[in-house]
């Protein structure tokens, strides 16, 4: 049943968020640190395990793939609910700082991408 | 009319499904018929979303009662849930290979953003360490900004600027990523992991990668999700102290 897939996704999501908040608390910041990342790793790990066991059948996977195909519409909805006006009226400094820093980081992508790439002995 | 409004008000999320469905359909038709697929339909849909946000205020289009459901569909709960689901199509060996590069990218992203953000803030008239750190933190993500500002006791207008800086970054990343992708060789999972770590704004990274190549989304999202945490950790502590040591 598809709901098994959705439930698997939900348990990974909640556990990941829990770990993220726990890590935040341990470090002393009251926020979620990498919750989504932990959840993604849990989902990848558990799906590999369950597939080996033969428990993760295509019908179950469909429940997860439905949500993975929903993220673009969700991102469109998110874009439509951003505070675009404030971003532009937040002063010139917000526009300059926002654009310059992002652009500089984008230019670093090809430089840092070389790390660990096509390495015959990939570093951990 | 009254009945229609009542039905939509009570079923906001469902109406949001319908509305976003229309936006997607409309965007893909424009992409195919008018632009001959030169600009992907997803990119047009996201741009359409950003333009629609102008109709409202803090919550974008969701400020209009009819579209209140958009705030639920576009909120962090559904966003994170759907982004986690994309991990199903990620290749674990590629993540392992890019792991080290991803961690370095995270550290480099936060540091470069701090250095540039603080410098820009200084030259634009915010010369005290608290304001400089807060605005630079906002250039990290729109969550790091207010968290840092509150921790350091920044004034509310500086915190507002830091949030605006973060939102500006999200919008810029969303629009710019598909345009610049080829030039920065952002066309493989490895580069996407690095990109996510360097940019860090999960919403911008995910939206920008979706508009570039859907397959790259899970890789970028994986590293970007750690950025806000790392930023909240470093900005109010190490980076702030660094500025005070430098005499600001």
From TrEMBL, chain A:
UniProt key word Transmembrane: yes
Origin species: Maribacter confluentis
Key words, A-Z: Membrane, Transmembrane, Transmembrane helix
Gene for this chain: madL
Ranges annotated as spanning the membrane: 34-51, 63-82, 88-112
Pfam families: MadL
Domain of life, per lineage: Bacteria
Protein name in the entry: Malonate transporter subunit MadL
Keyword Lipoprotein in record: no
UniProtKB/TrEMBL annotation, chain B:
Segments crossing the lipid bilayer: 12-30, 39-56, 62-88, 100-124, 158-180, 192-212, 224-246
Start and end residues of each Malonate/sodium symporter MadM subunit N-terminal domain: 4-245
Pfam families for this protein: MadM
Source organism: Maribacter confluentis
NCBIfam families: malonate_madM
Gene it is expressed from: madM
Record-given protein name: Malonate transporter subunit MadM
Keywords: Membrane, Transmembrane, Transmembrane helix
